[in-house]
Amino acid sequence: xxxxxxxxxxxxxxxxxxxxxxxxxxxxxxxxxxxxxxxxxxxxxxxxxxxxxxxxxxxxxxxxxxxxxxxxxxxxxxxxxxxxxxxxxxxxxxxxxxxxxxxxxxxxxxxxxxxxxxxxxxxxxxxxxxxxxxxxxxxxxxxxxxxxxxxxxxxxxxxxxxxxxxxxxxxxxxxxxxxxxxxxxxxxxxxxxxxxxxxxxxxxxxxxxxxxxxxxxxxxxxxxxxxxxxxxxxxxxxxxxxxxxxx
Length: 247
Description:
By secondary structure, the protein is mainly beta.
């Protein structure tokens, strides 16, 4: 299915089907996706466009291929609540193209495998990937790959991942990879994984809050960088309800 973005407004992305999305030049728009079926999405963003893309993904398997052109930006906020295999492949094709991703991954009683790849194919391109992960009796495996080609100077590639393990039978494995063929760039990654802070948990429980409620408060604080960036109240409420079911 072909889906054309040719006006600056909010769009609801059709669900339950493979789809090709074309964003025309000089567009400022918000895309909203709520998906429960396995599918592939191809997105191309033409010149001088600024797109916010909000996703609640309850599918098992999904694949997104994204191409961003001259002076265009894609700000993606995605939330994944079902295990399976998920792939995001991004090509920054022209100068001043930017990809910003904030990702919530919350798993309970399942296995989740995800790959995020960003290719910097021109000068002055920027990518920022932030992952916030919880694992409750689940196994989460994430590969984050940034590639800056030779001669693509003044590019910036940043990866940040944080994870909280909620039970003894849980694991979070994050593999950050930077493939850099150019000296005149900035590229870095950071990763932190651990259990819920025991002192913070004890403090809340000492104030009469149950252990479960205290854990939920800590997790909501952990996810607040994403929740606070959401301006769509309906999406924010759905995200809160979905995350509660994974704790």
